[in-house]
Every structure is written in structure tokens, then in C-alpha cells.
């Protein structure tokens, strides 16, 4: 499902990420106005500036840098329709007891806390009188259905983001909050696993196999899913966690099921109806 309306405005946090960069290029081609943050200037970031993106320096590990970036975003002469959070770091990788806790906490701040700090700061700048409700998109990771060993900081941050989308949806009725699991995408994030070596456990082998066989979800497919979310009504997608790879997004059969089941694609405890002492 493609969207090509002009006069839309998007803020992309970490536009310098691989997904963020491709997202900005596509939406600029639609005639959208794009504001994005970056931590370091790279050739791809410089190219985005050349083709029309407004770029703002922002280090998500530095509160002063974030406050400055948020101020500059608020000073833009537009209200945003779409806000996307693309930051992510898998570091530190390894067993929880063997990690430096300060590094672990820093990862949680980057992957969870400071993304919400930015959201809290710039949420008032959303456009509330547009064709669709303003849409906030986060990116999820693994670990919802199992224990992702050696990636505890990254995993718990993504799980927290999933629940936070549900909480935000319950509290803020004029905006859509959703989170997307992109699957295995060929991006810079996997460099941490390769550098961690044996500390990554079995995921090192899985990552090497993905690269050897070129088994990745395309960024185009991730962007198509994001655009479906942006165009979809709030009651279908807000507060939910979607999978690019496994979910039938864009299909009526899924839309109908989402309308029927308010718990679908949300974090819930499994087995609540088994061995219920109140029913015995």
C-alpha cells in the first residue's frame, strides 16, 4: 500500500540508520518535508541534506544533545504527521552477569528511555487536523515469545516499547502509536553481533548464515508496512506490535480480525485460563 500525498511532514529520529535513510529518500520523493536527526555525518547523511532533508545533530546517549535537538525540531515551521524512531543498538552483548552494568543501562536508555524522552518533548508538535491521525512508529526486536539470550538490554528495551505503545494508545486518543518488528534486515546493527563473537552465543551462527545466504527482509518491504500503518485507522493498528514478515498486513482478513480482538498483537500473559483457582 503506497502513500504519495504531498504536504505531509515527517520527523525521523536517527535518519542516519539504514532504514531511516531509505525511508527519508522515499518520502522525499513523494514531496514530503522531512526532518531527521543524526549522530555522525556520513556520506548518506550528507546526501539526504542535498536532496532536501533538514538535518539536526542528536546523540541519544547525551541528554544535552537531545534537549538541543528537540528544541530545534519544535522550532521547525510545520506540524508533523508522522514520527518514526529508528535508533537501535544491540550492545552490550553477553551474559547479563558478565556485562558492565553501566553499559547495560546506557543501552536501555538509547533503546527505550531516551526515545520516550524525545517523544514526550515533541509530541505537542503533531498535526491534529489532517486527513489521518498523526502516527508514531517504533521498531521492535525479538524476544516476545522466547528468551533471547545474551541480548538482555536490547530485548528488554524493545519489550518495554511494545507495552508503552499500548499505554500511550490508552491515554492519548488523538494519535496512533504502533511498533513494527522488521525481521532480519541487512543493516549496520548486526555489526555488534559479529564484533561480539562467541559472547553472542548461537546468534553469531545465525547472523553469519543470514549473510552467507543473503536471507534478509528487504527495506522496501519494511517501508511498505510502515506506510500501511500510517494510512490505517487508529482502531486497527494503535497500541499493537506488527511483524513485517509474518503478519498479513494490508489484507482485509487481518483487518477484520483486529477489529474483533482488542488483545491481538499485544503483550499478554499466556495460560491465564489454565488452573484458575477462582474457577476451581
How would you describe this protein?
- This protein is an alpha/beta fold.
- The chain has a single domain, classed as NAD(P)-binding Rossmann-like Domain (Rossmann fold, 3-Layer(aba) Sandwich), CATH 3.40.50.
- Helices cover 42% and strands 12% of the residues.
- It is built from 10 helices and 7 strands.
- The chain has helices at residues 18-29, 43-50, 63-74, 101-122, 152-171, 191-196, 202-213, 219-231, 234-237, 252-260, and strands at 9-13, 33-38, 54-57, 82-85, 135-139, 176-181, 241-243.
- The protein has a 7-stranded parallel beta sheet with strand order 3-2-1-4-5-6-7, sandwiched between helices.
- Helix 4 (101-122) links the parallel strand 4 and strand 5 (135-139).
- Helix 1 (18-29) packs across helix 8 (219-231), helix 3 packs parallel to helix 4 and helix 4 runs parallel beside helix 5 (152-171).
- It is globular and about 60 Å long.
- The relative contact order is 0.12.
- The mean pLDDT is 93.
Assembly annotation? single chain
The low-pLDDT segments are none
Strands, count:
7
Q: Can you tell me the number of structural domains? A: 1
Gyration radius, in Å: 19 Å
End-to-end Cα distance, whole Å, is: 49 Å
User: What structural class should be given to the helix and strand makeup?
Assistant: alpha/beta
Summed over residues and divided by their number, the pLDDT gives a mean of: 93
Amount of beta strand: 5-15%
Q: How would you name the CATH homologous superfamily? A: NAD(P)-binding Rossmann-like Domain
Note the main sheet.
7 strands, parallel
One letter per element, helices H and strands E, the order comes to: EHEHEHEHEHEHHHHEH
Helix count from the secondary structure assignment: 10
Percent helix, as a range, is: 40-55%
Judging from the principal axes of the Cα atoms, what is the shape?
globular
> Judging by the overall fold, what is the CATH architecture?
3-Layer(aba) Sandwich
Main β-sheet, spatial strand arrangement: 3-2-1-4-5-6-7
Indicate the CATH class.
Alpha Beta
Which fold name fills CATH's third level, the topology?
Answer: Rossmann fold
